[in-house]
Structure formats: C-alpha cells, structure tokens
Amino acid sequence: MKKFIGIAASLVAVAGLAACGGDDGGSGDVDRDALIALINEDGDMTQEMAECIADATIASLDAEDMKAIMDGGDPSPEGEAAFMEAVQPCIEAELGS
After folding, report:
1. With a threshold of 0.70, does the pTM exceed it?
2. 91 and 11 in contact (C-beta within 8 Å)?
3. In this predicted model, what pLDDT tens digit does every residue of 17-46 receive, in sequence order?
C-alpha cells in the first residue's frame, strides 16, 4: 500500500495538484470516500486531486487489485500500469492549468 500511495504521491508532486473527471468502468463496489481519505491521508493535496486519483484508481483497477489497495497492499503489476495510465489526465489537467 505504501508503495502504491507513494506512486500516487509522486504523481501529485510532479503534477502540482489538480482535478480531472471521467470514469469508464472498473471497480464499482469501492467506498470512494474511504479511498479519497486513504489517498490523501497526509492532507497535502487538494480535494480535487484526491478525487481525481480515486476516480482513476476505481476506473483502472479490478476488484482483486482494489481489495489489495484497500487492505493496505499493492496492486498487481498490470493494475499498477493501468493506474499509471488512468492517472495521466490528472497530471495533464494540472500541467495545462
């Protein structure tokens, strides 16, 4: 989990914090608010960026990877790659603003 959140935090540092939208499927049974709180547990990003990362996570990870994240672990390598691709709009939105 720390590795995954570390990746998300690194992306946030590069992006500088921003918002994005969109959801094209993924894990539908996830408590989005709990995931947002988990992603922003340090409180060092905007609510919009935490929501963007949460939405990207939900859209890109399957149920098994999502369970691993919510249980404090890391997603599979495939899930991590899908997440990295899904979070790009968050970064692009910040870089464009």
Report:
1. no
2. yes
3. 333 333 344 455 678 998 899 888 888 888
